[in-house]
């Protein structure tokens, strides 16, 4: 056998690594704050595909374990989730393909995972279209209240300030406001709204953030549907529910008229193994002339599509710097970070995945 061609190829590959160092694996660096005085929040995208297959549950628990293990080093103040907590809200007989866990199992899966954070860090969870109706928002009924309540996590119980209108008249956290004081003594509100909120809910939300007692708070709006893949507010979708406000209506009726909504976080959108179909970001001015950063982040069809592994463990952590203005966004996978063989894949560094924005 002539070994010369193989030696030549080896030398050529080594030269390419020397000339183009980006081809080589970069050394893994454990997530950390760029400034030790910063604090962070963790944003978890739609977890439904982790819940609908028993095989995927471990990945989501890895994500929760990572949050627990890094809570102090990242100074994590709260955790947010963009909704679609389950794949089917009220399904008894999964077909094994779309899901192999029935709805009770799915709700138990997601609640038992988040309950691991009880007493450690507050978490606020949006409800998505899959969290309503039989399979996906055929009507406005959700089992959320059976599995999540503010008193299950004492930290949520102490942070909740307002409870919005719900269809069944009960007091739940489906529409609610939480208050957080950051290590920099800034005041933040997290307002979570139901999937495609009703007019009554939008009106309640507007009156709530307009109250004088919240005038000096920065408000984060958390809801499931808001931006499309082109970073434009979604005007309408084809769900059977009526009296629904999607992204465009929410911006016009709530976000734009508000003087203190400064961030909007959402999920919902996706495209099999295509990051461009999962992401959106834009900035607009509100009534006070302040910029509003609106970010959609999902990952559920990354890692094998709609019936894949749930999203490769991707989440985001946002670092809030001590200047009170600068926010750095990192996209990270605790799943890939576990093994030295995959740690070089644990970050997404494209400009749509790792960036910063400022609150003016």
Automatic annotation (TrEMBL):
Gene3D superfamilies: 3.60.21.10. Residues 1-24 form the signal peptide. Residues 56-269 form the Calcineurin-like phosphoesterase domain. The keyword Signal applies. Keywords: Signal. It holds the Pfam family Metallophos. One of its GO terms (molecular function) is hydrolase activity. The keyword Acetylation does not apply. It comes from the Bacteria. InterPro entries: Calcineurin-like_PHP, Metallo-depent_PP-like, STPP_CPPED1. PANTHER family: METALLOPHOSPHOESTERASE, CALCINEURIN SUPERFAMILY, SECRETED PROTEIN. This is Serine/threonine protein phosphatase.
């Amino acid at each position: 056998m002539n070994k010369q061609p193989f030696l030549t190829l080896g030398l050529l590959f080594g030269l390419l690594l020397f000339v183009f160092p980006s081809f080589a694996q970069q050394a893994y660096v454990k997530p950390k704050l760029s400034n030790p005085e910063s604090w962070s929040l963790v944003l978890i995208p739609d977890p439904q595909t982790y819940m609908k297959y028993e095989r995927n549950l471990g990945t989501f628990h890895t994500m929760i374990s990572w949050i627990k293990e890094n809570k102090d080093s990242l100074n994590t103040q709260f955790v947010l989730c963009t909704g679609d907590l389950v794949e089917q809200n009220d399904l008894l007989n999964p077909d094994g393909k779309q899901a192999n866990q029935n709805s009770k199992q799915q709700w138990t899966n997601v609640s038992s995972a988040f309950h691991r954070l009880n007493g450690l860090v507050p978490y606020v969870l949006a409800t998505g279209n899959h969290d309503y109706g039989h399979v996906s928002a055929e009507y406005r009924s959700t089992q959320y209240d059976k599995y999540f309540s503010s008193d299950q996590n004492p930290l949520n119980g102490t942070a909740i300030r307002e409870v919005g209108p719900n269809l069944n008249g009960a007091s739940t956290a489906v529409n609610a406001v939480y208050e957080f004081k950051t290590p920099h003594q800034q005041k933040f509100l997290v307002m979570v709204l139901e999937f495609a909120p009703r007019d009554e809910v939008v009106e309640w939300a507007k009156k709530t953030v307009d109250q004088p007692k919240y005038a000096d708070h920065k408000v984060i709006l958390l809801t499931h549907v808001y931006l499309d893949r082109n970073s434009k507010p979604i005007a309408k979708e084809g769900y059977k529910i009526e009296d629904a406000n999607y992204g465009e209506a929410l911006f016009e009726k709530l976000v734009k008229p508000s003087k203190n909504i400064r961030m909007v976080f959402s999920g919902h959108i996706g495209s099999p193994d295509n990051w461009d179909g999962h992401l959106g970001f834009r900035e607009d001015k509100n009534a006070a002339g302040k910029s509003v950063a609106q970010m959609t982040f999902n990952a559920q069809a990354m890692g094998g599509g709609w019936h894949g592994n749930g999203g490769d463990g991707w989440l985001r952590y946002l670092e809030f710097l001590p200047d009170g203005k600068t926010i750095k966004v990192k996209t990270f996978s605790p799943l890939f970070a576990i093994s030295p063989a995959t740690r070089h894949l644990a970050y997404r560094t494209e400009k749509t995945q790792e960036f910063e924005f400022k609150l003016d």
